[in-house]
Structures are given as structure tokens and as C-alpha cells.
């Protein structure tokens, strides 16, 4: 029996037990409202979506073509419209998630106003956005199911049993808009207790997957900026443990932890861990330091720090701000060590922040990781910080040059120029860009592809286009032709914005509560009727 019929039977029996006092309550209306509000708490969502991610991870292990994707969303409405579009265009939400970017929280959601991605925004804004995203996704369910209920009522009123059965099947097999969110906790916003407290709030809001990075929290930088400072492995493992304890405390046993390493672009450390024996984690971390040999007391000045490496007394190179520097060229080795250590200590997925989208570079690191941890998988940032057009055109240029193909008609440093847009090289670079995700999933172990802040850029671009025309010669036509007519032609539900905001749901409820006396908004004088 379907969940709808189960709820209907349950409410029918419940109403009957009240000996006429609940005769004004229609059990079918109660069943509909219950179905429209399937998820009562964020923890229910976290447990449900954790199961989805675990199944998707297993499916990817069996078949790398089954990678998953997401887009970063900075507002609940943006997340809602994204998942409505996914269902409408692709028929299912399977394999599609949401990403919550700390960068966009800082830039768009802080009470301080726009901030750089340096963990300066209020930590509570992160769980607040998770809750907001799921509120909008649940409202999308309620709206879509409400439309189905109306269709069911119409079919019944017309005596169309075939249509009624068809709609009933749609209700019984309804797929929710609620999908996993991969949520960015930055570097944990403080010590391990602070990380635990914030992780708990994020999970209570609905997060089944938390991404944490190995930077020092109080000097955290965006992964695509300079000045990144990493923490020793022991410190990072403590924060992974903190997140896992939060999941376990709240009963989300399948919760997913993404361990992000910024070591490829991070050349500094703030802290020298204490090694107990040669080869331990602290020893491995400090072995990458940039040091100079000490041959006599004259090589030491007041305040210097000395360490013993491979039996030799050495002085770590320390900057004026007290930070220690790693040796140049050690970034990839440190990334591999970070990833292996994180996976062996409780992380489920990896995130390697790179400086360019290059399948070969990522695959080289992943192969080394998989030599030790065979089922290692990545979440990868298809970042807007990359100039994708220039990167892939240069990759094609380099490949052609290596093959001995004539590239004299191209200037490698000027490949972004529009004159190359219709060139053979430009066309092949676009094809490589199109295929990047499937190629990287197959060759570089990438389970999940995301774009961190795409909707930041789409909002800016669409606003620029509208402002250009509306405040210019086009006037109102800029909106009509550029927005509303396109919404109508493309079948976007939000063209009827009153319904999207919940007016029809409210009308249904008023009718449930007040019957024929309900004062509804969706009558003949509602201008939304102009859109059919």
C-alpha cells in the first residue's frame, strides 16, 4: 500500500476514535498535508540524504561513469529552482546534489556585508543557510504534490478513473526535491570543540556531508588565493574526529566527511608538531620543511628554532611573521600524504584543491593515493577561479605541439582572444571542457564534481543584461523579451510567481480549514491566470 493510502487509513481511524468531535477534519486532507511535509526535522533529512550519498559512492566504485554533480547555491530559492529544473529537464534528481560554499556565505550572507573567503563571517550563517535550502526544497515538494492532488480531484469529479489512477501512481512514486548537501565548514572556525559544535548545528539543520580543510582556521584563505597555511596531521585528524562524533551523537551513522587538502598551493605552516619516533606523522610533516644545516653556534641567532632531521641538526626557515616555510616542489608529495592520512583516520572522501583543471595532474596524485587506499575517491572543485577557456586551449596547444602539429597560427599566451573562438583549436578545447567531468571521473577518481559559486556569477550576469536594456533604449522590452517571454517559452513555473511563493498551497489549506467559506487568492481576478 502507498504512503498516501497508509496515511489516509491512519487518519480515518484516528478521526473515528473521537466520536464525532473531529467530523470537521477530512482524513484525506490530513493525509495530503502529511505527505507534503514528509521530513519533519533536519536530522530526518540528514539521515535520508546520507543513505543516498553512501549508495551513490558504492555505485561509483562499481562504475566510474556514475559520478555525481552539484552547483553551489547561496539562497534557498536558488537551490529550489535548481532542483525543480533538474527534475523538469532530466526527470530525476538522482546523482544531483547541492553544494554550500563558504565563499558564497562570506560574500553573500554575512551581516558584516560582503567579505572575502577567510572565515570572517558568522559561523551560524552556515547552518542557517542549510536550513533555508531545505525549507525551500520541501516547499517545492508541497507545491508539486499540491498540483497532483488538484489533478486527482479533477479526475475524480469528472469520473475519469484512468486519469485518477495515473495521477495516483504519480503521487505514490513521487520523487522528492530533497537531495544531499555537501556543506563547507571551512577550517572548522576554531579549535576542535568549536568544530564539533558547528558541525552539530549543521547536521541538525540537515547536512549529511561536511567538507573540512587542513588550513589554520584563524588565517584561513580561499583555496585559490596566496598565503595559505596548513596544520599538522594530528590537528586535522582531531577535527575529523570532532565531525564524526557529531554525526554519531545525532544518529547519522552514515554521515560523510570530505577531507580537503590545500597543500598543493600552501607553502607555509604555523606549527611544528612533536615527533615521538622516526617516520611518525609529525616526522613526515616536518621532513618537508625548508631548513638550513647548523654547523656551529655561529649559525644560530637569538630566538632561532632548531630541529633534528635524519640525525642532523637543522634550522627551519622562518618568516618575519613567525610562519615556517616548506621546501619548494613538495606540494604534490604533501597532498598525497595528507590524503592517505585523512582516509586512514576517518575521512570518507577527498578534496584536492588544484590551480588548474587538468585530468593528468589530478590522476597522477590519485594513482599514488590509490596505491595505498584503493577505493580513494574525490570531490573536485570545478572552480570559477580557473579560466577554463584559456586553460583548455593551452592544454590543446601543448598537446598539439608535443605531437609535432603546426601551431604557428596560434599565440599560446593570447589564446583567450575572441579570434580563436571559431578555430579548430578552440573547438577541440571546448570538447575537452565538455568531457572534463566524465574523463576525470574515469581516469582521476572523481566521484563528485561541483562548481562552488556558479550562481554568484549567473546572478551578476543576468542582472547586468537586464539593467543594460531596461535602463537603455529597450525599456520594458528588456524585461518582457529577455525574462518573462523566455520564462513562458521555456515553461518555467516561476513565471507564476504567486503560486511559486505558496499562494496555491495556502488556498488549499484555507479550503481544508474553512470549506466553502474560504477566501482564496486564486480566483478569476488573480492576474496570474494570464499565464495559463
UniProtKB/TrEMBL annotation:
GO terms for molecular function: lyase activity. CDD domains: ICL_PEPM (cd00377). NCBIfam families: PRK06498.1. PANTHER family: BIFUNCTIONAL GLYOXYLATE CYCLE PROTEIN, ISOCITRATE LYASE/MALATE SYNTHASE. It comes from the Bacteria. It catalyses: D-threo-isocitrate = glyoxylate + succinate. This is Isocitrate lyase. Signal peptide: none annotated. Pfam families: ICL. Keywords: Lyase, Metal-binding.
Amino acid at each position: 500500500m502507498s504512503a498516501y493510502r497508509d496515511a489516509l487509513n491512519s487518519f480515518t481511524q484516528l478521526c473515528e476514535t473521537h466520536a464525532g468531535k473531529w467530523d470537521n477534519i477530512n482524513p484525506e486532507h490530513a493525509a495530503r498535508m502529511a505527505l507534503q511535509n514528509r521530513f519533519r526535522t533536519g536530522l530526518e533529512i540528514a539521515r535520508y540524504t546520507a543513505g543516498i550519498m553512501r549508495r551513490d559512492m558504492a555505485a561509483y566504485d562499481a562504475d566510474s561513469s556514475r559520478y555525481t554533480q552539484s552547483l553551489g547555491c547561496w539562497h534557498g530559492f536558488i537551490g529550489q529552482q535548481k532542483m525543480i529544473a533538474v527534475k523538469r529537464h532530466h526527470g530525476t534528481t538522482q546523482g544531483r546534489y547541492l553544494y554550500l560554499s563558504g565563499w558564497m556565505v562570506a560574500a553573500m550572507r554575512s551581516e558584516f556585508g560582503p567579505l572575502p573567503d577567510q572565515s570572517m563571517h558568522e559561523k551560524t550563517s552556515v547552518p542557517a543557510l542549510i536550513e533555508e535550502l531545505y525549507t525551500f526544497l520541501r516547499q517545492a515538494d508541497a507545491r508539486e504534490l499540491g498540483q497532483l492532488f488538484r489533478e486527482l480531484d479533477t479526475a475524480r469529479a469528472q469520473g475519469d478513473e484512468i486519469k485518477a489512477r495515473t495521477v495516483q501512481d504519480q503521487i505514490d512514486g513521487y520523487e522528492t526535491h530533497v537531495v544531499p548537501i555537501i556543506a563547507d565548514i571551512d577550517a572548522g572556525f576554531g579549535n576542535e570543540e568549536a568544530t564539533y559544535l558547528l558541525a552539530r548545528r549543521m547536521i541538525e539543520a540537515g547536512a549529511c556531508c561536511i567538507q573540512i580543510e587542513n588550513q589554520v582556521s584563524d588565517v584561513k584563505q580561499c583555496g585559490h588565493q596566496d598565503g595559505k597555511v596548513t596544520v599538522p596531521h594530528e590537528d586535522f585528524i582531531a577535527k575529523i574526529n570532532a565531525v564524526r562524533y557529531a554525526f554519531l551523537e545525532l544518529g547519522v551513522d552514515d554521515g560523510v566527511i570530505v577531507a580537503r587538502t590545500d597543500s598543493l598551493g600552501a607553502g607555509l605552516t604555523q606549527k611544528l608538531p612533536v615527533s615521538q619516533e622516526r617516520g611518525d606523522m609529525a616526522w613526515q610533516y616536518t621532513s618537508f620543511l625548508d631548513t638550513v644545516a647548523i654547523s656551529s653556534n655561529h649559525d644560530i641567532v637569538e630566538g632561532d628554532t632548531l630541529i633534528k632531521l635524519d640525525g642532523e641538526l637543522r634550522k627551519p626557515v622562518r618568516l618575519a611573521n613567525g610562519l615556517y616555510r616548506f621546501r619548494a616542489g613538495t606540494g604534490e608529495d604533501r597532498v598525497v600524504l595528507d590524503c592517505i592520512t585523512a582516509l586512514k583516520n576517518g575521512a570518507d572522501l577527498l578534496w584536492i584543491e588544484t590551480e588548474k583543471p587538468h585530468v593528468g595532474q589530478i590522476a597522477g596524485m590519485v594513482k599514488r593515493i590509490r596505491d595505498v587506499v584503493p577505493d580513494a575517491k574525490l570531490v573536485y572543485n570545478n572552480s570559477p577561479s580557473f579560466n577554463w577557456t584559456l586553460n583548455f586551449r593551452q592544454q590543446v596547444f601543448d598537446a598539439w605541439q608535443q605531437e609535432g602539429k603546426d601551431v604557428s597560427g596560434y599565440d599560446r599566451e593570447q589564446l583567450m582572444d575572441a579570434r580563436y573562438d571559431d578555430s579548430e583549436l578552440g573547438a577541440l578545447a571546448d570538447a575537452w571542457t565538455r568531457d572534463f567531468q566524465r574523463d576525470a571521473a574515469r581516469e582521476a577518481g572523481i566521484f563528485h564534481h561541483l562548481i562552488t559559486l556558479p550562481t554568484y556569477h549567473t546572478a551578476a550576469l543576468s542582472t547586468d543584461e537586464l539593467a543594460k536594456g531596461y535602463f537603455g533604449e529597450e525599456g520594458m522590452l528588456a524585461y518582457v523579451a529577455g525574462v518573462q517571454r523566455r520564462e513562458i517559452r521555456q515553461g518555467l513555473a516561476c513565471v507564476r510567481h504567486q503560486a511559486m511563493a505558496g499562494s496555491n498551497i495556502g488556498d488549499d489549506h484555507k479550503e481544508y480549514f474553512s470549506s466553502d467559506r474560504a477566501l482564496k487568492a486564486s480566483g478569476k481576478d488573480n492576474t496570474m491566470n494570464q499565464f495559463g
